[in-house]
């Protein structure tokens, strides 16, 4: 069960952030509305929010999740693969320190975006991507082992459509994983029940389970129906402006 989340709304220069989506520039006012609806959904799920101020020095900083891995047994500050995002970590670290007495950190030459880290109970999947390298992934694996968790590395560099591992993977609990078709046959997920997202709705794979409810992006009816048929209560949220900047539902908060 989550009790808290840290969120940061997009700054006015949000459109100046990193993106490979090719979907055009986001509408800032609409992004603010979508972010507020996201925050309301987290509160609906019972979370107390720490709301940070927008950070115009870092246009990507609304994607708070990438800065840290927060677990019930310890926390790790990330070291983003994009140099323009690395200074986001220090300011977030000051906030996280209010909740976690001891902070570990990924060190150079390691890079790690927390969007490449998927928690599945006591096991963690750690993606090797364009943003997370082997050194960073291995450092995290060792830290997680010290916390008493298991982990495995999942190389997604040959999967063109995925910026981060969690762009195509989510854990629903109950030994169930949401996966895109591009990841469905990977050996790392063979011990789980898989909810496959068809290629036309691949963006929807980045969903978030929060205290028994599933936050899911709007516009993907087949996947939403799958979740409901499995017995999950869903909250549908418009993510169009964040999708334009390579962002998804999990990216917008640090939940713990």
Describe the structure.
The protein is an alpha/beta fold and 256 residues long. It has helices at 28-44, 88-96, 134-147, 221-229, 240-243, and strands spanning 4-7, 48-51, 68-71, 74-77, 103-105, 117-120, 123-128, 150-155, 169-173, 176-180, 193-197, 208-210, 213-217, 233-237, 254-255. Strands 2-1-15 form a three-stranded mixed beta sheet, covered by helices on one side. The longest helix has 17 residues, at 28-44. The chain starts with a strand and ends with a strand. The model has no long low-confidence stretch (mean pLDDT 97).
* Helix-residue proportion: 10-25%
What spatial form do the alpha-carbon principal axes imply? globular
Count of helix runs: 5
Total number of β-strand segments?
15
What Rg is obtained from the alpha carbons, in whole angstroms? Answer: 17 Å
Walk me through the topology:
Layout lengths: L3 E4 L20 H17 L3 E4 L16 E4 L2 E4 L10 H9 L6 E3 L11 E4 L2 E6 L5 H14 L2 E6 L13 E5 L2 E5 L12 E5 L10 E3 L2 E5 L3 H9 L3 E5 L2 H4 L10 E2 L1
Parallel strand pairs: 1-2, 4-5, 7-8, 10-11, 13-14
Antiparallel strand pairs: 1-15, 3-4, 6-7, 9-10, 12-13
């Amino acid at each position: 069960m989550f009790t808290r989340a840290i969120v940061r709304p997009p700054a006015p220069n949000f459109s100046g952030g990193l993106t490979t989506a090719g979907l055009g520039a986001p509408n800032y006012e609409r992004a603010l509305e979508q972010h507020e609806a996201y925050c309301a959904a987290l509160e609906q799920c019972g979370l107390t929010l720490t709301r940070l101020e927008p950070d115009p020095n870092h246009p990507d900083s609304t994607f708070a999740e990438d800065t840290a891995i927060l677990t019930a047994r310890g926390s790790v500050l990330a070291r983003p693969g994009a140099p323009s995002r690395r200074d986001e970590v220090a300011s977030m670290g000051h906030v996280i320190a209010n909740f976690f007495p001891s902070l570990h950190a990924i060190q150079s030459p390691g890079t790690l975006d927390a969007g490449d880290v998927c928690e599945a109970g006591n096991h963690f999947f750690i993606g090797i991507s364009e943003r997370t390298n082997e050194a960073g992934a291995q450092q995290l694996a060792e830290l997680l082992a010290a916390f008493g968790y298991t982990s495995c590395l999942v190389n997604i560099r040959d999967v063109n459509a995925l910026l981060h591992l969690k762009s195509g993977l989510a854990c629903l609990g109950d030994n169930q994983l949401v996966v895109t078709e591009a990841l469905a046959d990977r050996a790392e997920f063979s011990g789980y029940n898989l909810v496959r997202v068809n290629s036309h709705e691949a963006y929807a794979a980045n969903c978030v389970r929060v205290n028994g409810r599933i936050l899911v992006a709007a516009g993907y009816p087949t996947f939403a129906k799958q979740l409901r048929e499995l017995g999950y209560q869903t909250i549908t949220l418009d993510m169009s402006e964040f999708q334009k900047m390579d962002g998804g539902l999990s990216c917008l908060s640090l939940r713990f």
